Amino acid sequence: MSWNKEIVFVGGKGGVGKSTSAAALAVQAAAAGRRTLLVSTDPAHNTGDIFGREIGGKPVQVEDHLWALEIDSEVETSRYIAQVKENIRETVHSGMMEEVHRQLDTAKASPGADEAALFDKLISIILEERSRFDQIIFDTAPTGHTIRLLSLPELMGVWIEGLLKKRKKTNENYSRLLNDGEPVEDPIYDVLKERQERFAKAREVLLDPSLTSFVFVLNPERLPILETKKACDLLETYDMRVDTILINKVLPDSADGEFLAERRRHELQYLQDIDDTFPQQRRIRIPMQPHDITSKADLEAFSRHLGS
Ligand SMILES: Nc1ncnc2c1ncn2[C@@H]1O[C@H](COP(=O)(O)OP(=O)(O)O)[C@@H](O)[C@H]1O
Ligand SMILES: [Mg+2]
Fold first, then answer.
1. Residue 148 · residue 240 · CB < 8 Å
2. Which of these, 144, 114, 143, 126, lies nearest to 39 by C-alpha position?
3. Fewer CB in 10 Å around end: N or C, the chain?
4. What is the residue with the minimal CA distance to atom 6 of ligand 1?
5. Is the CB of 15 under 6 A from ligand 1?
6. Rounded to the nearest 5°, which phi and psi values hold at 170?
7. Cα separation, 22 vs 250, whole angstroms
8. Is the beta carbon of 292 within 6 A of some atom in ligand 1?
9. Which residue owns the Cα nearest ligand 1 atom 15?
10. Nearest Cα to 301, choosing from 40, 36, 67, 20?
11. Helix axes 73-88, 187-206, angle to 10 degrees
């Protein structure tokens, strides 16, 4: 196991250190000479501050071999919904349009929409940027909804195929009747077909363990262990294997005092639990620092614990 897979997803609950780990991995990859793209999905994260550069929706170079990109999930959700509206414009009767738009705007506010839009964006990045970079590192991993979306080509393959065939047939009939046998354009056919192909292509990359690495970050505490186990099992169900567990914010040996000694005793138990719960995964411990990770030097210090 090494850190040089083309695609790296860094998952885990809020606050455990995903964005920090992803940034540290990116700095390390760039230092090793790999053209690296760090994709941050966390608007609160200080990726821009760390590199002293404003980062936005397009890759900007922040260092030698290192580019960064920030995804704003609100912007992506609006874009996504607008695109859905555009796609259905041709199929929905104009009298129904207002109602359909109302429904879509309601959908936009639902939590699943953010995830779906974000995932759509991740797929675009993988498909469009992969050839330009040696490594793409995301500070998020597919979860719940999005994993199910990933299995879409498989689950819905038959359904979409059927739909496509039917539409094709209808179109051929139309062509014969209305268009002197010339094919009529079918935007929905094209949209469906393109979507199916994109999902299938992305899936091929994501399900190939020689290309994609799934990393989970947790802290040595009870709930994160349980939640990480659940997330790993869910990914497994869809044939995606978590290969690395980053155990972040482990009390350093140098931390002393009675209070910390007591905490360390509990922590030892959790560290043991983690070893027992994730026997198949590479497990890496990263000590808690006395302060937040806010500079490039902090990141480099952090990345020294990651191994190569
Ligand atoms: N090993 C560590 N020691 C001290 N602070 C850390 C460590 N890892 C992360 N942090 C801090 O914890 C906070 C949450 O980290 P972050 O990477 O933003 O988490 P996430 O992306 O999982 O929400 C940040 O303030 C970060 O600087
Ligand atoms: Mg984050």
1. no
2. 126
3. C
4. 292
5. yes
6. -55, -45
7. 18
8. yes
9. 17
10. 20
11. 140
Residue 142 in contact with ligand 1 by CB distance below 6 A = no
pLDDT at 75: 85
Cβ atoms 306, 25 nearer than 8 A = yes
Residue 153: per-residue pLDDT: 53
Q: What are phi and psi of 9, to 5 degrees?
A: -105, 130
Res 22: pLDDT: 96
Span from the CA of 166 to the centroid of ligand 2 (angstroms): 44
* Residue-level pLDDT at 117: 80
The atom of ligand 1 lying closest to the CA of 302 is: 1
Structural tokens at position 46: 């200080």
Q: How far apart are CA 253 and CA 251, in angstroms?
A: 7
Residue identifier of the C-alpha nearest atom 11 of ligand 1: 292
| Domains and their CATH numbers in the chain | 2-255+281-289 (3.40.50.300)
Instruction: Give the integer Cα–Cα distance in Å for 110 and 76.
Output: 14
Buried b / exposed e across 22-39, counting CB within 10 Å, b at 16+?
bbbbbbbbbeeebbbbbb
Pocket test for ligand 1, best of 10, 16, 20, 302 (most atoms within 8 A of CB): 20
How far apart are the CA of 110 and the centre of ligand 2, in A? 21
Confidence (pLDDT) at 110: 74
Half-sphere CA count of 305, side-chain side, radius 13 A: 21
Question: What tokens does 79 get?
Answer: 């874009």
Nearest CA to ligand 1 atom 5: 292
286 lines ligand 1 (CB under 6 A): yes
Q: Indicate whether residue 293 lines ligand 1 (CB < 6 A).
A: yes
Which residue has the least CA distance to atom 8 on ligand 1? Answer: 17
Weakly modelled stretches of the chain, pLDDT under 50: none
User: In the numeric block, which tokens belong to residue 174?
Assistant: 């139309």
DSSP annotation of 16: S
